[in-house]
Amino acid sequence: MEITSWAQEYFQKTLLENTFHRAIHRCRLKLYRSKKKQYLNMIQKRRRFLWAKAHLKWTVAKWKTVLWSDKSKFEVLFGKLGCHVIWTKEDKDNPSCYQRSVQKPASLMVWGCMSVCGMGSLHIWKGSINAERYIQVLEQHMLPSRRRLFQGRPCIFQHDNARPHTASITTSWLRRRRIRVLKWPACSPDLSPRENIWRIIKRKMRQRRPKTVEQLEACTRQEWDNIPIPKLEQLVSSVPRRLQTVIKRRGDATQW
What is an example of a GO molecular function annotated in this UniProt entry (predicted)? Predict the structure, then answer.
């Protein structure tokens, strides 16, 4: 519609949307739904660009020493059939063609960590998240995962810049434990392979369609444990290419 409006104004003549659909088809182009990416202002782009340049010399072997962590929200997919429906003119008001939704779908907030060595612990958050509760998660889940995955070998812990992560008591706890933390640029989930892990699990949830929170938790844990080691190696090995893309785009969002 935007192309049609622009062309009609530019050529000063009436044009139909179908005209552009045929032109797109002749050019062997396809219409895709645009990817959702976080907005980045100029300061954030600059910091991402500088961070990528500073870490560009890290080898894949170096990135394999990182313990990646993050949290994500999972929802019970009540009635979400997708945005597109194929129907006849007579069926357009059939209730089976409606995309139904609820105001507050049941959901889980999940924290997990991973490395090239395997999947770490998965924790289901109950209630709000603050620095004190985050430290408990680090003690009960991150430290055992680090011991199990790295077997005493040195590693670097990665988490983003969420407020509980950067609170003074959290940073003090990490220093006391002598845990080396990877400095991370704001608004940069595309630089971390753990974002791809969440995407894989959520795709599985859309296929399995759990109906309750209990089923959602069980399915999430099962799919978390099913992530294969070769997939983790592939994702971690892609980090240098992600940095190159960020530098090429001057800090803007990437396709990862």
Answer: nucleic acid binding
For the stretch 129-159, pLDDT in tens is 999 999 999 999 999 999 999 999 999 999 9
Residue with tokens 């080691």: 229
Q: What is the pTM of this model?
A: 0.81
Q: CB-side exposure of 202: number of CA atoms within 13 Å?
A: 16
Give phi and psi for 115, each to the nearest 5: -145, 180
Question: Rounded to whole angstroms, how far apart are CA atoms 124 and 74?
Answer: 10
- Helix (H) / strand (E) element for 241: namely helix 239-248
3-state secondary structure of 185: coil
Burial of 256 (0-12, 13-18, 19+ CB in 10 A): middle
What whole-number distance in Å separates Cα of residue 141 and Cα of residue 99?
38
